[in-house]
Amino acid sequence: MEFRYLGNSGLKVSAISYGNWVTHGSQVEADRATECVRAALDAGITTFDTADVYANGKAESILGDALAGERREGLEIFTKVYFPTGEKTHNDTGLSRKHIHESINNSLKRLRTDYVDLYQAHRYDHFTPLEETMEAFADVVRSGKALYIGVSEWTPDQLRAGHALARELRIPFVSNQPQYNALYRIIEPEVVPTSRELGISQIVFSPIAQGVLTGKYQPGQPPPAGSRATDESGGAGFIKNLVENDDLLGRVQQLAPLAEAEGLTMAQLAVAWVLQNDNIASAITGGSRPEQVKANAEAAGKTLSAETMAGIDEALGDAVQRDGSLVGKASPGRRLV
């Protein structure tokens, strides 16, 4: 396993991290989830990413149970706060001081740990003063409940403002968690340069475009039985527009010979492509089967040739989304409860 520094900090994380967004507690039940976590550990993965909103807390609980008994100092456990959780009443959402403090306490109970290595703002909260949010994060860090602070899907301006407050408060703001893969590159124009300047790393999710870059979805063919595109409870809605785009799926098929030439599967090629960007500290991969987890981990440390990188760009062509103005659109424009 390759290890990389997280932002301008002394913390190292595994270049491949294990995430349980649409698996634990929904697509995969506890026994299989534990098998997948064991496979991740066996493959050298030490970094685990989750969130309180995943399966309304169940994903954190399953991860906590699966990691019980492991040497805590040898792990990096990440979680997030923002979306409605629990009873989902009027204060069970956002980045208010109240919600942050209650959420970290509940997350630690479910994860069966005294602290998380990274606590992340799952989105930007347009309805809470940023000063309140950052002061609450500072309280969490100073209480020892989190070691570092990060965010997810923030714009360059939001990153700058948050980072400036973090410096004033003397807390380590080290990461951003966006979606990033060979088909979706909206962070490249501004987020990555801004992050390099500030000493912030990316911890990216969906490096294989939720399975689309594996090549298993064929143009003109229905999605394979048991795939994510057929699982309404496991994220089918997130990739509907991709698996119904035959031109895009046809372009993805052109990546197969490039992967073969590199001695990789198409999924490994996609993960290795993400890791060529030196602002990426870790690529979050999941898996509903242990063998998927093991295979994804084998992409760590692979350096793709210049010819392969150019071939990927040529194959995908104008199917790639590069519009930097889309950054931040995932943050809700209304209060959710």
Radius of gyration of CA atoms, rounded to a whole number: 19 Å
Number of strands: 10
Helix content: 25-40%
Strand pairing plus helix content: what structural class?
Answer: alpha/beta
Task: Name the CATH class.
Answer: Alpha Beta
Q: What is the succession of H and E elements?
A: EEEHEHEHEHEHEHEHHHHEHH
Q: How many distinct helices? A: 12
CATH architecture label name: Alpha-Beta Barrel
The first-to-last residue Cα distance is 42 Å
Across the major sheet, the strand order is 3-4-5-6-7-8-9-10
| Total domain count | 1
Beta-strand portion reads 5-15%
Low-confidence parts lasting 5 or more residues at pLDDT below 50?
Answer: none
Overall mean confidence score, pLDDT? 93
In brief, what are we looking at here?
Helix 1 (30-42) packs across helix 2, helix 1 (30-42) packs parallel to helix 11 (290-297) and helix 2 (58-67) crosses helix 3 (97-111). The protein has one domain (14-326): Alpha-Beta Barrel (TIM Barrel), CATH 3.20.20. Strand 7, helix 5 (156-169) and strand 8 form a beta-alpha-beta unit.
